[in-house]
Amino acid sequence: MGENVIETFNLTKKYDRFIAVNNLNLRVQRGEVFGLLGPNGAGKTTTILMLLGLTDPTSGKVSVLGMDPSRKTLSVKSRVGYIPDTVGFYEELTARENLIYIAKLNGLSGNQAYQRIDEVLTRVGLHEEADHRVATFSRGMRQRLGVADVLIKQPQLIIMDEPTQGLDPEGAREFLELIRDLKKEGITILLSSHLLHQVQAVCDRVGLFHKGRMVLEGSVTELAKQVLGRAYRVVLEADGDKEVIINALKKIPGQVGVHAKDGKYYEVEAEHDIRPDVARAVVQSGAALLRLDVEAQSLDDIYARYFEEVKHAPQN
Amino acid sequence: MPRKTKQPTPPVEREGSPWTGLWAVVTKEMADHMTSARMRILEVLIVLTAAGSVYSAMQQLRETVGQDPYLFLKLFTTARDPLPSFINFLVFLVPLIAIALAFDSINAEFSRRTLSRVLAQPIYRDALLMGKFLGAFFTLSLVLTAIWMLIFGLGIVGLGLPPSTEEVARSLWFLLATIFYGGIWLAVAVVFSIVFRQPATAALASIAVWLFFTVFWGILASLFAQTISPVQYGTMDEIIRQTETQIALSRLSPNTLYAESMIAILQPTVRTTSFLLPTQLEGAVMGSPLPLRQSLLLIWPQFTGLIAVTILLFALGYVLFQRQEIRA
């Protein structure tokens, strides 16, 4: 940890007058899963293409694995795997034939290539279908073939653009499992998505993109602190006098907000986990504590809140 | 049309060879072409054409066996109603084959969404484009060589004569020129496949260009010649000038370049691809064949022209492709 796999300095990309990426400073460390979040057209894909040297930046610098992708193109591309948003294959060829082509482009041939293709196909669970034509594959199988495709070059970094888009829940779950496995092997992963709960499920850190800028960056908990001003929300059910309970809860050090909900439910927001304090306070106030739970902050909340604020903020 | 962006100003030195992975692309392309249904249709078409025109040429030649020292070459050039001669067929067919091989070379990669995946491999765009072109070019060469051999085989069986060394040499040059004539149309189709995102549009555009040169350019050339060098008083000078202008204009068409070089190389008695005044023929033995070297000299401009146009068009496609944004 600590070593930066991806670094960008004031990276900017302009298409005529439209600024797709604006002064981006992105850092991704070795071994982490980093999620690029943001609405469509926020500059995620453009950023990815610049990281791969497939598009030249208008200004700024990129460093991937310590190399400049537009100078050391071949070195970067032989170490970085890329799964585009809708990954395409040669439909009339079989899965294996598709991979043979990619292996050859990576300078592998003969037994070495065949062996590795077998390995990666088994890895992603497509061994049985290896000799079927890709035209017969489902969306989820194609996506897994996309992973097999990048694993051939034994990458240090894998970049995925919207990897779970269009997958059914089961397919998405399996795919996220695959991402976790890759992380365990020490492969750094950068993925872009707007499916928030999936990003939250696998990413160590996320960066929120808006209009070509990365407006927020950090772990989900950190973002929650920044955007929502609180990281924990304790939900409890208690039987007793409403006034008394609320007063007791408000006295807890570290709470930032107490809300009475329908019926016997209450909500306490705090910057850290204050469940023991809440339990004690309720019991000491003489009420009966029926249930106590902490609700994790969801990325959905952060996302929704952030864009709500942006919408209401005066345009600069 | 794809969006274009300015390349960064400082020249960036690239790592490694631009041709890394070239042969992987070439072999894959050739394998694709050889197994495609499109190719089978073309093969059937061209074999039928070759067999048909050579058969009818042989019917015609049977009557004159023994009188011509270049009987084998006549197989390529003799026509008998209702079929045109084999080279007339080729002028017509080779562009179609070439266009069919290449009209979707780049845009199909876009529409199948394989382009970004392939370009994310450790190769440069140079290798992909060159590989696509060479893959189609080698396939075309293979097909044309097969037909060439087929005609020779049919000729030996049908006429009962082996070809002379000179005939083999001449027909090899003919093969080479035919391949490069196809190369031009390959390059045209590749350029359109880069410019247009829809394969159908690219095919249509290529066919439009082909139709333009096949049907309309001849008419336009004579129209332009009349405007550029008008015949006002009907003097010999004026008429010659107008004819020269017309010939020069018609040579802008690859079809003319090819047809002219074919006639000169396959008919050794042809002494000019333009016209001759009686005064220039003084001392010439009429009807005597030229040696191969002289025939080659005669068509050298046309021949190099064919190769040059292929290279120029490919270079154009190359520049367009390098500047293209690869995101869909």
Description:
The complex is a heterodimer of chains A (316) and B (328). Chain A is α/β, with parallel strands linked by helices and 316 residues long. Chain A folds into two domains: 4-225, Rossmann fold (3-Layer(aba) Sandwich), CATH 3.40.50.300; 232-296, Alpha-Beta Plaits (2-Layer Sandwich). Chain A has eleven helices and 14 strands. Chain A has helices at 44-51, 73-79, 95-105, 110-123, 139-151, 169-184, 196-202, 220-228, 242-250, 275-284, 299-312; strands at 4-15, 18-24, 27-29, 33-37, 59-64, 80-83, 157-161, 188-193, 205-210, 213-218, 232-239, 255-260, 265-270, 288-295. Chain B is globular and about 65 Å long. Chain B has one domain (22-276, 286-323). Chain B is mainly α and 328 residues long. Chain B has helices at residues 22-35, 37-62, 71-77, 86-102, 107-111, 115-119, 125-159, 165-195, 199-228, 236-250, 254-266, 292-323. Chain B starts with 21 loop residues before the first helix and ends in a 5-residue tail after the last helix. Chain A binds chain B through residues 15-16, 45-46, 49, 52, 54-58, 70-75, 77-78, 80-84, 86-91, 101-102, 104-107, 146, 149, 153, and chain B through 3, 5, 7-8, 12-16, 20-21, 24-25, 27-28, 32, 112-124, 325-327.
Structure at a glance:
The complex is a heterodimer of chains A (316) and B (328). Chain A is an alpha/beta fold.
How would you describe this structure in keywords?
heterodimer, A: 316 residues, alpha/beta, Alpha-Beta Plaits, 2 domains, four-stranded antiparallel beta sheet, B: 328 residues, mainly alpha, 12 helices
Overall geometric form of chain A: elongated
- SS-derived structural category of chain A: alpha/beta
**Helix-residue proportion of chain B:** over 70%
Order of helices and strands of chain A: EEEEHEHEHHHEHEHEEHEHEEHEH
Percent of residues in β-strands of chain B? under 5%
Low-confidence residue ranges of chain B: none
Number of domains of chain B: 1
Beta strands of chain A, count: 14
Number of domains of chain A: 2
Average predicted local confidence, pLDDT of chain B: 87
> What is the percentage of strand-forming residues of chain A?
25-35%
End-to-end Cα distance of chain A, whole Å, is 38 Å
- Sheet of most strands of chain B: none
What's the level 1 CATH class of the largest domain in chain A? Answer: Alpha Beta
Nearest-angstrom radius of gyration of chain A?
A: 24 Å
The percent of residues in helical segments of chain A reads: 25-40%
